[in-house]
Amino acid sequence: MLSGGSDSIALLSCLSKLDLNFYTIHFNHGVFNNSIKLSQFCKNASKNLNSQHHFNINIKNLNKKNIESIGREKRYTISKKIIQRLNINFILSAHHLDDQIETLIMRQVECNNWVSSLGIQESYGHIFRPFITVKKSSIIHYLKKNNLIWLEDESNNDNSYLRNEIRNVKIPDIYKKSPQLINRIIKSNKIAKDKFEKIKLEISSGIIKFIKTEYGLKIHTLNLKDYSYIELKFIIQLMIKSFKKEFQTSKSNWETIIKYLDFCGQRISPFIMNDTFSI
Fold it and tell me: CA–CA separation, 92 vs 86, rounded Å?
């Protein structure tokens, strides 16, 4: 994914030095004044840095209020379609360590559990983020050393967006007043990743047993007392992903699902999660 910013240009430059066939994708949200300029810049950069083909995709019906959430959802939906159509192995995104720290702070504001400390995953499905442990300052150093030009989206300076407020106001204040807090945030991220890997191992090794059935998912042994509510939700989502399916629902419905699984008596019928999947 090519935004034209420093991170994606650095990633494009690194790819151009490898013996790989790759495409570039730029999503034009059409909301800000420099959208057209960014699109043209990305097209030229992809050509100069050996992209096999460049896609410029316009995302419609966005505005400044929904560009973060809806825009992200549409980008990943379109990316999946491109993967299938062109038989692409994976998509690279240039998220870096500073993005990770911003995300962790945002999620701590929104909720306080270990899953919120997972942050941005290094890989998720077909999406890989090779810069996720690299500092922004290192990326800028690389660009300057190699005389590379980039353009920043003007929306990055608009602090009415929570992420920008955290990036431009809160994090500089943390570095000034309590820099050790950043290290604690990164440490909590590592602990959360270890928990995540432990749960994945318990599923793959059969400690948490389940089988695929004609109606969906049958959980054999799941001692609910050993897991928190958020861990149970996570376990079920990981199981569902083994079917190559995604499932999103409301908090109240998740509570109903957990109560269903915790029922000690005989279950007469499966729990219907959506039109195609049951537990």
Answer: 15
- The reported pTM is 0.79
The residue type at 166? I
Distance from C-alpha of 197 to C-alpha of 266, rounded to nearest angstrom: 32
User: What is the spatial distance between Cα 223 and Cα 264, in angstroms, rounded to a whole number?
Assistant: 11
pLDDT in tens, 250-264: 667 777 777 776 655
Beta bridge partners of residue 57, listed in sequence order: 27
> Which two three-digit tokens encode residue 103?
């995300």
Residues linked to residue 123 through DSSP beta bridges, in sequence order: 128
| Residue type at 42 in one-letter notation | C
**CA-CA-CA-CA torsion sign (25, 31, 32, 34):** positive
Pairing of strands 53-58, 123-124: unpaired
In tens, the pLDDT along 129-161 reads 999 999 999 999 999 999 999 998 777 888 888
DSSP 8-state code for residue 132: T
Q: What is the DSSP letter of 225?
A: G
Which segments within 155-259 are labelled E, that is strand? 209-212, 217-221
- Per DSSP, 131 falls in state T
